[in-house]
Design goal:
Blueprint: H1 2-16, E1 18-20, H2 21-30, H3 37-49, E2 53-57, E3 63-67, H4 76-91
Antiparallel strand pairs: 1-3, 2-3
Length: about 100
């Protein structure tokens, strides 16, 4: 039962990308998801461990929850360097 809740929480977070924990809980209740405080914290911890969200303390009683966006940039220069290093490594062995 935790996995469907975790997926729903993640999708909700991705909609806005930046919530406080109280805002997120209110939105989940509005969607009809009933979740206890301990379950909510466990879901947040699981999502943070998986690297899907970032949770940080704003005040003593509130946390900021943000979706982690992964930007993958292909750098042609870096690819050329890696290819050259691979060729140099292979060339460093004496031919048999």
């Amino acid at each position: 039962m935790v996995i469907p809740i975790r997926n729903h929480v993640l999708e909700t977070i991705k909609q806005k990308e930046n919530f406080t924990d109280k805002e997120l809980q209110k939105l989940l209740v509005k969607d009809g998801t009933t979740i206890t405080e301990s379950e909510f914290n466990k879901v947040l911890l699981d999502l943070e461990i998986m690297g899907l969200i970032s949770v940080s303390w704003v005040t003593k009683d509130s946390k900021r929850i943000e979706a982690v966006t992964e930007k993958i940039e292909e750098d042609k220069y870096e690819e050329q360097i890696k290819e050259a290093e691979k060729k140099d490594y292979e060339a460093s062995f004496p031919s048999s």
